[in-house]
UniProtKB/TrEMBL annotation:
<dbReference type="GO" id="GO:0008270">
    <property type="term" value="F:zinc ion binding"/>
</dbReference>
<dbReference type="InterPro" id="IPR032867">
    <property type="entry name" value="DYW_dom"/>
</dbReference>
<feature type="repeat" description="PPR">
    <location>
        <begin position="391"/>
        <end position="425"/>
    </location>
</feature>
<dbReference type="Pfam" id="PF20431">
    <property type="entry name" value="E_motif"/>
</dbReference>
<dbReference type="InterPro" id="IPR046960">
    <property type="entry name" value="PPR_At4g14850-like_plant"/>
</dbReference>
<feature type="domain" description="DYW">
    <location>
        <begin position="605"/>
        <end position="697"/>
    </location>
</feature>
<dbReference type="InterPro" id="IPR046848">
    <property type="entry name" value="E_motif"/>
</dbReference>
<feature type="repeat" description="PPR">
    <location>
        <begin position="88"/>
        <end position="122"/>
    </location>
</feature>
<protein>
    <submittedName>
        <fullName>Pentatricopeptide repeat-containing protein At3g12770 isoform X1</fullName>
    </submittedName>
</protein>
<dbReference type="InterPro" id="IPR011990">
    <property type="entry name" value="TPR-like_helical_dom_sf"/>
</dbReference>
<dbReference type="GO" id="GO:0003723">
    <property type="term" value="F:RNA binding"/>
</dbReference>
<dbReference type="Pfam" id="PF13041">
    <property type="entry name" value="PPR_2"/>
</dbReference>
<feature type="signal peptide">
    <location>
        <begin position="1"/>
        <end position="18"/>
    </location>
</feature>
<keyword id="KW-0677">Repeat</keyword>
<feature type="repeat" description="PPR">
    <location>
        <begin position="189"/>
        <end position="223"/>
    </location>
</feature>
<dbReference type="Pfam" id="PF20430">
    <property type="entry name" value="Eplus_motif"/>
</dbReference>
<dbReference type="InterPro" id="IPR002885">
    <property type="entry name" value="PPR_rpt"/>
</dbReference>
DNA sequence: ATAGGGTTAG
């Protein structure tokens, strides 16, 4: 059969049906993520289109373009598009949509310009895709031009176009421009309200988002689940569980509580607000949780210190062959980093090295952080060295890792190597460097590095200022630290005053400490840590009345001292201990060992500093509380359950207490073991009676 | 043919 007769044999309608079928089958195929056979089908159709001359029929080409788009192959669509001599507006819209939907935003904008050159006027559909492309690639100038073009083409009051403008400005981070567009819209739909509400949420302004939501409820527009997702997110960001629960009841009242994506946002809300068990209830009630729900649950566990639960879910996903994405992987890494388990870190590293994320920069940066936090600076360095393309954040993560371990000089050396390799530092790099200096007592170096920031065009943030205050404070230069705070160009925040207070505690500077505490109570009234620090400061100066007053303030505010817990990893199992914990099956032996250690400590001349404990306790109770601290229980358990000489690795949720710190120093010598403790701030390496932190933390 | 949302965040 000749080509000519072949083309004649095709009827218009049969080709049309074939293309519809191609679009439908290719969509299915995409779901099955096997598109090779469909590609072949498309090739055949393409030949047919060209050969038959039917590519001149606009609607057939549109169908073809749609088939291509289902295959996410915009290049193929473009190839056909170019065959058409005078594309009409429908075809132009089709191809622009194709680029936008495939996230090739520059292509969409280029096609828009080509379209104008060719003399075809855009319509409302055109703008939807072009505005989305502008938002997607954050081209504010072009976006603004497009905005004026909408007026030129008489679309100033088209709801669809105006809604897209609201979203576009929100994506630029210009919520006030978005708001102006929104305010001028009088025929607002639920989509208009959702666009402005989510715009505020995405730009970190949940308060305004909720204000708008209040207005919305006074309007006649009906709520749907999509707008409620944004509202739940707003309450999640504000950590306002009370109001969040109210929205939860509203969701139930509207019968939307089984909407899968509402479930995701509610799970996330309860998890972020610390109510992991409620989150887990949501998770469990779904027969087949979607990927986002798995991710919300895993990250919720990870962030609240439930590392093992997070990893358990992650393992379940793998064994059930549920596909994970990079968010899942990063949440799992976070979970292991929080748990501090060396064994889990090794396992996860192995898993990732065999996965498609093995070269992902984000994942590898998180891995460096994880290995460092699990106490394995060598593994962190291994990941770092393996990466060929190192960006600033990768370098910074490694620098931070050294800082965490108190290897200040290594951090600085690495920084110099980074500059040599042509990578410019950013503010994260300096957080790492300054942290490294403060954890190693490198006062002079830290001070100089802080002043180098401006040479690199980096404006210091709160974290940098607080590192400097910490650096000066622990070295005893408290008045200088205070003057430094007073000279700050930005308003000193919680971290800065917190750093001053801890410096004051180390050097028993009551007056300045009170000034810092006063600020902290104003800025962060419900954070227990500040009250404990102030109380410890008073205790160190023997001001027992004041200690009592702080205690009273805490009771009045309904605050309890955060409970300490420590975990130790034995044969790959994490065992967690709380203060005075007697729930462990080997509890009896643990307490016998604690007694034995206590006697040996006393014999070696160890005396507890009673000052640093919160009290209205009598002497005996103090001693009792001291030796019951969770880290001591973990040490005792470690000693009785491992071979002599084995290194003990312990993770504690709070900062190390002074007494346990000096006790563990001595224990490391008495039992001749290396003991590694990761507290809330850093690593302590105890060996032969000394600690790597040099007793400053 | 039309628009809006959610998980991470080194």
């Amino acid at each position: 059969m000749s080509l000519h007769s072949f083309s004649l044999s095709l009827s218009l309608s049969s080709l049309s049906t074939a293309l519809s079928k191609a679009a439908a089958t290719s969509q299915e195929a995409l779901l099955r993520s096997c598109n090779s056979s469909c590609r072949k089908h498309l090739d055949q159709l393409y030949v047919q289109l060209i050969v038959s001359g039917l590519y001149k029929c606009g609607f057939l080409v549109i169908k073809f373009v749609n088939a291509c788009l289902h295959l996410r192959d915009v290049n193929y669509a473009h190839k056909v598009f170019r065959e058409v001599l005078e594309p009409d507006i429908l075809l132009w819209n089709g191809i622009i949509k194709g680029y936008t939907q495939n996230n090739i935003f520059a292509g969409a904008i280029r096609m828009y310009k080509d379209m104008q050159v060719s003399g075809v006027n855009p319509d409302c559909f055109t703008f939807l895709y072009v505005l989305k492309a502008c938002g997607g690639m954050s081209v504010e100038g072009i976006g603004k031009q497009m905005h004026s073009q909408t007026f030129k083409y008489g679309l100033g009051s088209n709801v669809f176009v105006q809604n897209s403008l609201v979203s576009m400005y929100a994506r630029f981070g210009q919520t006030s421009s978005a708001r102006l567009v929104f305010d001028k819209l009088h025929n607002r739909t639920v989509v208009s309200w959702t666009s402005i509400i989510s715009g505020y949420v995405q730009n970190g302004d949940p308060v305004d988002a909720l204000r708008v939501f209040k207005d919305m409820r006074r309007s006649t527009v009906k709520l749907d689940w999509i707008v409620l997702v944004s509202v739940v997110t707003a309450y999640t960001d504000m950590e306002d569980l009370g109001q969040g629960k109210a929205i939860h009841s509203l969701v139930t009242k509207l019968g939307l509580e089984f909407e899968p994506d509402i479930v995701v946002s509610l799970t996330n809300m309860y998890a972020k607000c610390g109510r992991v068990e409620v989150a887990r209830f949501f998770f469990n009630q779904m027969e087949k949780p979607n990927l986002l729900l798995w991710n919300a649950m895993i990250s919720g566990y990870a962030k609240n210190g439930y590392g093992e639960e997070a990893i358990e879910l992650f393992r379940k996903m793998i064994s059930k062959n549920i596909g994970v994405d990079s968010v899942t992987v990063r949440s799992a890494i976070l979970a292991v980093a929080q748990a501090g388990s060396l064994e889990l870190a090794r396992w996860l590293d192995g898993y990732i090295s065999k996965s498609e994320y093995r070269d992902d920069v984000f994942v590898n940066t998180a891995l460096i952080d994880m290995h460092a936090k699990c106490g394995s600076i060598c593994f962190a360095r291994g990941v770092f060295d393996r990466m060929v393309d190192k960006d600033v954040v990768l370098w910074s993560a490694m620098i931070m890792g050294y800082g965490l371990h108190g290897h200040g000089q290594e951090a600085i050396d690495l920084y110099n190597r980074m500059k040599q390799s042509g990578v410019c530092p950013n503010n994260v790099t300096f957080v790492g460097l300054l942290t490294a200096c403060k954890n190693s007592g490198l006062v002079k170096e830290g001070w100089e590095l802080f002043h180098q920031m401006r040479d690199h065009g980096i404006e210091p943030h709160h974290q940098h200022y607080s590192c400097v205050v910490d650096l000066l404070g622990r070295a005893g230069y408290l008045n200088r630290a205070y003057d430094f705070i007073m000279s700050m160009p930005i308003k000193p925040g919680v971290s800065v005053w917190g750093a001053l207070l801890s410096g004051c505690k180390i050097h028993r500077q009551v007056r300045l400490g009170e000034i810092a505490a006063e600020q902290l109570f104003l800025l962060d009234p419900y954070n227990t840590g500040h009250y404990v620090q102030l109380s410890n400061l008073y205790a160190s100066a023997h001001l027992w009345n004041h200690v009592g007053n702080v205690r009273l303030m805490m009771t009045q505010k309904g605050l309890n001292k955060d409970l300490g817990h420590s975990s130790i990893e034995i044969n790959g199992n994490l065992e967690t201990f709380h203060v005075g914990d007697r729930s462990h099956p080997r509890s009896k032996e643990i307490f016998e060992e604690l007694d034995r250690l206590e006697r040996r400590l006393k014999a070696a001349g160890y005396v507890a500093h009673m000052e640093s404990v919160l009290h209205d306790l009598n002497h005996e109770e103090i001693e009792e509380t001291l030796c019951n601290h969770s880290e001591r229980l973990a040490v005792a358990y470690g000693i009785i359950s491992t071979a002599p000489g084995t290194t003990l690795r312990i993770t504690k949720n709070l900062r190390a207490c002074v007494n346990c710190h000096s006790a563990i120093k001595l224990i490391s010598k008495l039992v001749d073991r290396e003991i590694i403790v990761r507290d809330a701030k850093r690593f302590h390496y105890f060996k032969d009676g000394v600690c790597s932190c040099g007793d400053f933390w």
